[in-house]
Amino acid sequence: MATLDISFKPERAHLRKPKRGVIAERVVPQSVAGRYRRLKWIALACCLAIYYVLPFIRWSRGPGQPDQAVLLDFERGRLYFFFVEIWPQEVYYLTGLLILATLILIWLNAVAGRVWCGYFCPQTVWTDLFLLVERLVEGDRRERLKKHGAPLTPRRILEIGLKHAIWLLIAMLTGGAFVLYFTDAPALLVDLATGRASMLAYAWVGILTCTTYTLAGFAREQVCTWMCPWPRLQGAIWDPEALTVNYRDHRGEPRASAKKALELRAKGEPAGDCVDCMQCVNVCPIGIDIREGPNFACINCGLCVDACDATMEKLGRPRGLIDYVAWSNIERERQKEPARNRVIRPKTIGLGLSVVALVGVMGISLSMRSDAKVTVIHDRNPVAVRLSDGRTRNGYAVRLYNKADRERSFILVVTGLQSASVEVVGEDGLVSVASDTTRELRVLVTAPAGDRQPIAFTATDVASGGAVSTQDVFIPVEGGQ
């Protein structure tokens, strides 16, 4: 039975005693080649391409409408995503998206652990990009460890300056791309470059530049381990049937060098396949030793799998000493039992169906949306007034929404009461609502005294004949007064 290690203490590189003000311990990952590293490069390229290109994609919405495919327009109070347009009153769609994202993360965790963290999380993507720059400028792990704490030379100063200059450029481009999602991207890009953009835009570029530079350049594994809430949940939702990165200890132990292993086997003594080369630890971006068992800090990136497989190939031993394998299968292999692939099981099926159901409900809701809407709020104080002729009057705040790109005229009708009169304050019958706006009306409904009754407010578009309605109640005066 496995327990998830939450007493995380990363394997740190033992560096030389640094000068004053230099951090002594840090994770310095080594580069590695392999199929999972290639998958991470592909994921990185796709994520960066989407992030930087998406604001420049155009989408025609008609005259007077923004043509940016993805836009959070604070001026209009709209969120545009290709053919979808979300109004502030439809924030429940954003809530649905958050719930959907949570369900997908939980489903991914049940299938393959923290695979999102290892491949698609923005922290991972930008950290990989920053590490690539660091390796290209300063060299791989061994070279960087040698240079750390060594006396500064003109070449070393140039390397440090170049690395941080590229980091800052990437961070600035990241912040600049972020603000492009809030207004027309080409126009804002020109304004940013020519100094004509607003101070708010420059402020947000500065904030995103600082956060990207700090988190991807310095915090790195600390974000994935301590700042992100997702690892804290691992102890509760860790699934032994998920395909996570694990070490086959029954095959790798006891550890011995290649030469020592041959000697032990010649004597008939046990010797594992692990040669304790530490490559799995050296390439880990978090700095953990996967051989110690499941660890909540592991982001399931698979780089240790690539490193271990490369070592096994050099030694002529089978791959898979470290592999994507369910911990339950590790236990079965230890007991000489056949492995069972249980990726498809009630839990993953249920979570998958939940995701599909939520997507379906939101899709149907979006497809059935009308470009007009009416809402009603009953007066609170007083809720009803008795007139001198004995009739009762209720007041309502009625809001008409016109989501079309043209001005529309509506006829407002109240039904459900007999012998009732309706007055729309300040209007003579037709209610005009400008394009892409809302209009609030004061409506007075007067009827003979009676019991509490449901009523309906219906707004009919004069041009198209389409109607929208909502329900409320007509309330009598309390105590018969």
Automatic annotation (TrEMBL):
Q: Does the keyword Metal-binding feature in the UniProt annotation?
A: yes
PANTHER family xref list:
FERREDOXIN-TYPE PROTEIN NAPH
Q: What keywords tag this UniProt record?
A: 4Fe-4S, Electron transport, Iron, Iron-sulfur, Membrane, Metal-binding, Transmembrane, Transmembrane helix, Transport
InterPro entries referenced in this protein's UniProt entry, alphabetically: 4Fe4S_Fe-S-bd (IPR017896), 4Fe4S_Fe_S_CS (IPR017900), Cyt_c_oxidase_cbb3_FixG (IPR014116), Electron_Trans/Redox (IPR051684), FixG_C (IPR032879), Helical_ferredxn (IPR009051), Ig-like_fold (IPR013783)
List all membrane-crossing ranges: 39-57, 91-110, 165-182, 202-219, 349-368
The UniProt entry, under PROSITE patterns, shows: 4FE4S_FER_1, 4FE4S_FER_2
Does the record bear Lyase in its keywords?
no
What is the name attached to this protein's record? Answer: Cytochrome c oxidase accessory protein CcoG
The protein's matches in Pfam families, at most eight in alphabetical order, are given as:
Fer4_18 (PF13746), Fer4_5 (PF12801), FixG_C (PF11614)
Q: Which organism is it from?
A: Microvirga splendida
| Annotated ranges, domain 4Fe-4S ferredoxin-type | 264-293
